[in-house]
Q: What sequence folds into this?
């Protein structure tokens, strides 16, 4: 186990095309960190003094401006996704909380020795959606998960922890705005992926400790759901085409400190445990597993560190 410290609860991680850099969110902090894979050196890239901002008014005409420049701004970051571009410039989607509930959009230019990160726009979520994860689409749109409404009561959150369906998926496209995905109602909708052909959603349901696939674009949605026995957080495709699902064990009464990573075959829904980690102050509350070379990088929704483990495959 290797640890990359000085993070702010790196709830989500995403690998920049080329595999040389990893973006980390800051669930208990502010903004975005960029970590160099070869030496695990971490640098905050937004917001910082001299941060690059260039709004794309054509793509995001309703965006009120950068998330960090208004008085008393709060910019907590959560789910991440990178949509690869044709050359060295890629699009980074970031779930933002604080001053507003939104998807913040950045460009990452990997041509310089340290990539340039430029804020280019945002899409504000409708009330009362409480965003969690985002997954970009080739047309510039995205899919996002509503984990729980922002106005949820303590009793409503407890019902979600017991498996009540309280959220769903939403798609956003510039031409049509936000639209709820039929058949996607779930308990604590969390991580989101999509098949390479665009015909299936893959969804982590944190509250019900389950995972499901849902047909996309069909008149009658087809849904297959399996129980995993832990609170499934983020999901990521591995190089072999299977899905890494990371999350936490525990119940309402027992703190979810232990971490577990499994691999899911998206076609058969067969599940294989990859890495269990018990209660350990060094690292806990695992949330995501990303392949970086021969390692798995694991994020957490608490604490100040990313864990790097040798990938047990």
A:
């Amino acid at each position: 186990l290797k640890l990359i410290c000085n993070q702010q609860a790196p709830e989500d991680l995403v690998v920049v095309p080329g595999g040389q850099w990893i973006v980390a969110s800051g669930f208990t902090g502010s903004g975005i960190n960029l970590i160099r894979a070869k030496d695990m050196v971490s640098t905050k890239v937004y917001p910082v003094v001299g941060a690059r901002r260039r709004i794309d008014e054509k793509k995001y005409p309703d965006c009120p401006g950068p998330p960090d420049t208004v008085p008393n701004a709060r910019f907590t970051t959560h789910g991440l996704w990178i949509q690869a571009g044709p050359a060295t410039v890629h699009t980074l989607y970031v779930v933002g909380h604080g001053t507003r509930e939104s998807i913040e959009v950045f460009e990452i230019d990997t041509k310089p020795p340290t990539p340039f990160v430029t804020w280019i726009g945002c899409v504000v979520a409708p009330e009362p959606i409480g965003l969690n994860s985002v997954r970009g689409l080739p047309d510039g749109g995205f899919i996002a998960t509503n984990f729980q409404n922002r106005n949820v009561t303590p009793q409503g959150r407890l019902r979600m922890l017991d498996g009540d369906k309280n959220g769903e998926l939403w798609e956003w496209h510039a031409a049509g705005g936000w639209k709820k995905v039929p058949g996607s109602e779930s308990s604590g909708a969390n991580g989101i992926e999509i098949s390479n052909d665009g015909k299936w959603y893959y969804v982590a349901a944190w509250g019900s400790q389950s995972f499901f696939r849902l047909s996309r674009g069909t008149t009658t949605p087809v849904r297959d759901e399996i129980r995993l026995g832990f609170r499934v957080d983020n999901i990521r495709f591995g190089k072999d085409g299977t899905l890494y699902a990371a999350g936490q064990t525990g119940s309402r009464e027992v703190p979810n400190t232990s971490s577990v990573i499994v691999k899911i075959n998206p076609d058969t829904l067969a599940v294989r445990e990859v890495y269990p980690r018990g209660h350990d102050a060094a690292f806990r509350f695992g949330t995501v597993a990303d392949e970086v070379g021969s390692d798995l990088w694991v994020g957490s929704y608490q604490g100040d560190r990313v864990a790097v483990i040798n990938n047990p495959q």
